[in-house]
Write a structure and sequence with these properties.
single chain; 250 residues; alpha/beta; 8 helices; 17 strands; 34% helix
Length: 250
C-alpha cells in the first residue's frame, strides 16, 4: 500500500527536483498534488488528506508556518524543506521535527521518509508544533518566552528568568531564578542555538550562562563566575574575552 504525499513549494525547479527523486527512489510514495503558495497548500492538504506534507518554509510574503497554523492540530507528517539554515531551522531542530536543506540530498530524503514511516505509528505531537510556533514568534520585550518540551507537554519559560543551562549528557538542566530546575531532552548545543547569543554565553563545555545573572567574575586563567543563586561556574580560557565583552555591554 502506497504512502500519500503532497508538495507545497513556490519554486518550480524545487518541486520538480523533489518529485523526480521521489519517483526514482521512492515508488512507495504517491504524490497526490503540488501547490505553489500557502492558500493553495491549505486547500490541497484539506482536500487530499495526505500522510506526508513536504513543506517549503519561505513562500513569498507567507511561510510554511502560516500554513501549519491554518491547518490546526489535524496535520499530516510534516517534512520541512528550506534553502536557508537560519533561526527557523534551529527552532525546527529544537522541536524535534524533520527538515531537509535544499538542494535536497537523496540519502537525507530517504532517512526523512524512513522516520516518517515510523512516525505514522506514533504521530508527531501537536506539542511539537506548538513549541515550534511559539519559539519562532520570539517576542521582544519583558515577556520573551521559550517553549520547552517536558514529559507531560510544554513548559513556557521566561528567557530572562533562566540563570544558566547545564549539560547532562543528551539532556540539559535549566536552572531558573525561582530555584526551579527543568530537565529537558535537548543538548546544550541546541539551547545555545536557540537562545540569544548576546545574552547567553557557553562559557564552558557544560555551562551556558545568562550574563544578566552574573553576580561576580573571579580572575584566573579563564576565571570563574558566581551566578545570582551562588553557583560557581568555571570559564574556559578561550571564552574569557567573549564573556568580558558581554559583561561590558550590560
Amino acid at each position: 500500500m502506497k504512502t500519500t504525499a503532497v508538495i507545497v513549494d513556490d519554486e518550480e525547479h524545487c518541486r520538480i527536483a523533489l518529485g523526480g527523486i521521489l519517483e526514482r527512489r521512492h515508488p512507495e510514495i504517491e504524490v497526490l498534488g503540488l501547490a505553489t503558495n500557502v492558500p493553495d497548500g491549505i486547500k490541497l492538504v484539506n482536500e487530499k488528506k495526505p500522510q506526508i506534507l513536504f513543506l517549503d518554509i519561505e513562500m513569498g510574503k507567507q511561510t510554511g508556518f502560516d500554513l501549519l497554523q491554518a491547518l490546526g492540530p489535524d496535520q499530516p507528517h510534516v517534512i520541512f524543506t528550506t534553502a536557508h539554515e537560519g533561526y527557523a531551522v534551529k527552532a525546527i531542530r529544537f522541536s524535534a521535527l524533520d527538515y531537509l536543506l535544499k538542494p535536497i540530498d537523496p540519502d537525507e530524503l530517504s532517512i526523512a521518509i524512513g522516520k516518517a514511516s515510523e512516525a505514522m505509528r506514533t504521530p508527531q505531537s501537536p506539542d511539537q508544533f506548538m513549541a515550534l510556533l511559539k519559539n519562532l514568534a520570539q517576542p521582544n520585550g519583558p515577556d520573551k518566552r521559550i517553549a520547552l518540551p517536558v514529559a507531560d507537554g510544554l513548559e513556557l519559560v521566561n528567557v530572562d528568568e533562566i540563570l544558566y543551562c547545564e549539560s547532562d549528557s543528551n539532556y540539559t538542566v535549566v536552572h531558573q531564578k525561582d530555584k526551579k530546575r527543568l530537565v529537558i531532552s535537548r543538548t546544550l548545543k541546541e539551547f545555545e542555538d536557540m537562545l540569544d547569543p548576546a545574552q547567553f554565553i557557553r562559557v564552558h563545555h557544560s555551562h551556558l550562562i545568562n550574563v544578566k545573572h552574573v553576580k561576580k567574575y573571579i580572575r584566573g586563567e579563564g576565571g570563574e563566575v558566581i551566578m545570582a543563586d551562588g553557583t560557581n561556574v568555571a570559564v574556559s580560557r578561550r571564552k574569557k574575552q567573549e564573556l568580558m565583552d558581554s559583561l561590558a555591554r550590560l
